[in-house]
Amino acid sequence: MAMSTGEGKTEVTSYSDWMSQLAPELHDTPLYKLAIPGSHDSMSYDLDINSAIIEPDRLKSFSPILYIREIVRTAATTQDVTITQQLDAGVRYFDLRIARKTNDPEPNKFYFYHGLCTRTDVETVLRDINDWAEKHPKEILILALSHFKDFDNNIEELHQKLIESIKTVFGAKLCNKVSTQDPFPTLKSCWEKGKNVIVSYDYSANQEPELWPRITYYYGNSMDPATVESKLESDLHMRGPNAQDFFACGLNLTLPEDFWVFRYIFFDNPTNVLQRSLPRMLQWLKQQYSQTPYMNIVASDFVTRDDFVSTVVQLNGPTPKCVEA
């Protein structure tokens, strides 16, 4: 990792290998007890202007109108750097929502979506992630696949095809889900087994040993930061410190599903609202952690801004020391 020094202090300037830099006493800590930076709607930087509108439902009928698709793409773009750049920045959890494109000439291809489908297909992105994981064997990646839009026809066949693709791409890197008899994975146990990819698959009918069940994602379901903070505080309090599984705390804001969505799409760009809210949300996160010092995955929009990654990583303790390659 790169570093700069001044007055005897070390400043982290790259988090591409932050897990391997954590204090040794954290190497045996279950992964659900580590604070892990994540990205919300991780592939939204890649939305395809030629895709039909998938959400919100109120705008689906306007899909033929290019101007409306452009507005949806602007509103739905919650990440502005590629998946590889997110990995390099230190993000280790990815919110990956899967869909099939309407009237796709290749019906067995899968894409990501947020408002619109992505240009890049799922397998291509998974291979990019696998290539990165191969170069960073001590960084544990958590991929949360969910939603599966337009899987209504041949649903079991489509899920099986996607699962086989996941297993083929990642192979021996996949960390199997734990049973009641298994100890929860730690950094050390993953390193010893040479496994550094965990795939959460939110479809209970297709839970195979290589796949983990859905990871609970707490979010405020509001465009108001104060409402989001209050909802997250309530959820974290209800969860308590003794649960023993992964969970994600979403700092992201959420567009309304009623007619108020048009206010943000046409008058108050949601991207600007999101950017204005992140510094406040990070301050809330630090205060929350000082009061109830447990946190697992923390997900956000625009993950390379406002010291999001470093703020989350430092919840694990002192800033990890850097070692130059």
UniProtKB/TrEMBL annotation:
Matching PROSITE patterns: PIPLC_X_DOMAIN (PS50007)
Entry protein name: Phosphatidylinositol-specific phospholipase C X domain-containing protein
InterPro entries in the cross-refs: PI-PLC_domain, PLC-like_Pdiesterase_TIM-brl, PLipase_C_PInositol-sp_X_dom
Domain of life: Eukaryota
A Gene Ontology biological process term: lipid metabolic process
Domain Phosphatidylinositol-specific phospholipase C X: 25-201
Molecular function GO terms recorded: phosphoric diester hydrolase activity
Gene3D superfamilies, per the entry: Phosphatidylinositol (PI) phosphodiesterase
Pfam families assigned: PI-PLC_X
Species of provenance: Perca fluviatilis (European perch)
